[in-house]
């Protein structure tokens, strides 16, 4: 009668240990799968970014360098060279990495942030630098956004810079609002031109985040017009 409860307790302890180990293995597997997915996504985005940089510049005239995210990369388009950047008035060079932003941690991919890429982007000179983004910063802190903004501007001293803020993509409209407001303040504090696009009514793909071909056309034309208006 005395040994029965002890055996029961022992069996219960062994069962609990087995359950715990099973849960630990399962969580580790899920974590490994998540890391693997990030690695594959980063490899895909890096390949797309390299292909975009290798494309010949579109247009003629002043050299315009665009540093941006998936919108500048043309993610979701059959022909990424038809992204909104092709509507800018000048000889346009694009350095775009999907998922990236002003904040260092906006993307999990190494070397993807705007600040990590901007020096390389302007190595050939630039009559105008366009920094396009913000939708990937919506889940970052204000402090991280500000720090990233400071870092990306540092190598651009002496160059003409225009920041193009996030449109109100349905999937991230709420976050786009505060990022737009913050970028307007930051550009004003640093004497940099700002183009807000949150008022634009654009057609999106089914993900509610990326633009259709018509959306890229409309966005590009609106941005080009607003940049031209800054000179006036």
UniProtKB/TrEMBL annotation:
InterPro entries: SGNH_hydro, SGNH_hydro_sf. Transmembrane segments: none annotated. SUPFAM superfamilies: SGNH hydrolase. Keywords: Signal. Residues 66-218 form the SGNH hydrolase-type esterase domain. Residues 1-31 form the signal peptide. It holds the Pfam family Lipase_GDSL_2. This is Acyl-CoA thioesterase-1. Gene3D superfamilies: SGNH hydrolase (3.40.50.1110). It comes from the Bacteria. It comes from Mumia flava.
